[in-house]
Amino acid sequence: MRSSIFLVRHAQSVPPTPDGPDEYRRPLTETGRVQANQLAGSLADLDPSVVISSPYLRAVQTLEPAAQQWNLPIYTDPRLREWDSGIEPTPDYACHYEQSWAHPQWARPGAESLHELTERAVHTLTDIVDGLQGRPVIIGSHGTFVARALIGLGCLGVGWDFQQAMPMPAVYRLEFGGPTVYAVGPGL
Q1: What is the DSSP string of 14-81?
Q2: Contact 34, 60 (CB under 8 A)
Q3: How far apart are CA 11 and CA 129, in angstroms?
Q4: pTM for the whole thing?
Q5: What pLDDT does residue 178 have?
Q6: What are the distances in angstroms from CA 23 to CA 5, 30, 32, 54, 168?
Q7: pLDDT of 24-47, one tens digit each?
């Protein structure tokens, strides 16, 4: 039996700043709220069995309008959180990310390597798929998580450039049930 996951990168959120809300509490911008409502419209015809999100506010807020239209609660799973890069909010974050993408096994002290994130993402999605009952599952997460999950599931052409170009929000449909995972979404 084939199982479907709709993996959603959150909508536009307030950028990280040293004195701003922490990663768990960064909300969507007004534009992000509009995007979340539009996303709900584009997903309206689905009949999901469950909606699961990263516990980060921006991911939950992205799925709220859709979950409300289906009259479903949003369950949170800390395994769906964003990459713990160990990089503080800084204007030159992109060069630090690019270095990490070039060396995915390397991690800053106390942080998670991109390789570890890839393993976490694949294990998490596999665990969720194992519990599916034929109806789709909607999962809210983050750009780096999504990109590394796609890499771990065998999608070709996913890298730093792919992640940088990933829109907010972005939806990737993953079909499980055969020897390979079939993925459709922006940039694939």
Answers
A1: PPP-TTS--TTT--B-HHHHHHHHHHHHHHTT---SEEEE-SSHHHHHHHHHHHHHHT--EEE-GGGS
A2: no
A3: 24
A4: 0.96
A5: 79
A6: 25, 18, 16, 11, 17
A7: 999 999 999 999 999 999 999 999
CA 35 from centre of chain: 15
Q: What is the predicted pLDDT for the residue at 173?
A: 97
Question: How many whole angstroms separate alpha carbon 136 and alpha carbon 46?
Answer: 7
Name residues whose C-beta falls within 8 Å of residue 164's C-beta, 6 or more positions apart in sequence. 94
- Residue 165 Cα distances to 107, 151, 159, 169, angstroms: 23, 15, 10, 12
Q: What is the rounded distance in angstroms from the CA atom of residue 129 to the CA atom of residue 27?
A: 28
Under the banding of pLDDT at 50, 70 and 90, the label for residue 93 is confident
Residue type, 85: S
